[in-house]
């Protein structure tokens, strides 16, 4: 089917979906991390790294195109409500031919070459969306119909990323987003449409919370991320059962997964979540490409901004937070509780065992104890441990009590 035919046929049945190009707060620089706030040596270093990355990207892209490679789309995030969806994808260069459905080791995905400024046609359930470039923002960008303009193709940024908000009317439940670039077949991705009636959601860390990564040990974490067979990654015992039991309390309860891993491994993590029986949901990762104003966001910054985005996207929803005590999740979640009083229902902290934390067992109590908080915090080394204390509490709160935001 030609591009013209593909664009016209759905148009006979449905009006085109309006969308805007935005920059979310996920990887935006906080005020104290902006380039102009840094010392001269830091600014020079960041500019040098950014310039070096840009040079590498241009040279790599030129070489790939000489080899006959051309752009394809990697679909990432798709989530929203009946009224809008937030869509993120990336255009990268790859050899001719169909894309393999098997997942690759991290070392190969880390070497992905971005296809900058590539035109992408996007459709939701075969209905094309109208898109437009409206400039960059470093803060949460809520839907605003006054800023909509008409265009049939969206343009990815210099790192190949494309971030859109599409306004529409969709039934809650799973939908499909398709992305198309010239000379490639359609690239499908999931779209999770969350009903407005959903009042409780789950935000879960990935590394060492559901997926054994051994993040406190840089060498072990690097091996697991880059060299380990992605189909043989281990799940934290009992966590998929715990999450499934929580989902059974309310089938409308959405699950959001976050990690400081780069977007390149999104397909690997999605495959892991599916293979190990975790509830499906949007996966939000980190852009590791250095940029002059945002540079590379820290793990803490990335998670705080991820949660900030979801708090703004779903202002009437309360959240259950899951993390681990291997790095900074307890203190990060304590800051979330402080910033958003009444929005956090409970926190589950998975405690790392000695060989995961890299600490001798005689010295190991808690790698990162949680500060005092005004919400209940539950601890356990496995999903079964957490389930004993946390699940009864959540069942009682979800079914019998707890104020609803905005009611």
UniProtKB/TrEMBL annotation:
GO terms for molecular function: ATP binding. It comes from the Bacteria. Pfam families: APP1_cat (PF09949). Keywords: ATP-binding, Nucleotide-binding. Residues 200-351 form the Phosphatidate phosphatase APP1 catalytic domain. This is ABC transporter ATP-binding protein. It comes from Bombiscardovia nodaiensis. The lineage of its organism: Bacteria, Bacillati, Actinomycetota, Actinomycetes, Bifidobacteriales.
